[in-house]
Amino acid sequence: MIKSPPKPIGNPYSRIVTEHKDQIGAYVEVGQVLDSQGRYLPFDKMRFRFPKELDHALAWAVVKFARNKQLAPVINLGQPPQVCRFLYTPAMHIAVSACDQNTTTAALEWMCSKIGESKQLQYLLNDLVEDEAISSSQLEGAATTTKVAKELLGRKRGPRTPDEKMIIGNFKMMQHAWECRDRDLSLKLITDLHQVGVEGIDDERYYPGVFRNDDNVVVEDGEGNIVHQPPPAEQLEARLSKVIEWVNTNHTDINNQNYIHPMIKAIILHFIIGYEHPFHDGNGRVARSLFYWYLFKKGFGGFRYIAISTLLKIAPIKYGKSYLYTETDEMDLTYFIDYQCRVIARAIRQFKKNYDNAVASIDAFNTFLYESGLFGKLSEKQRVVFNVARSGNSKFFTVNNVKENLNCAYNTASTVLNGLVDLKLFRKAKQGNEWVYSMIEPKQILKTWT
Question: What is the pTM (predicted TM-score) of this model?
Answer without folding.
Answer: 0.85
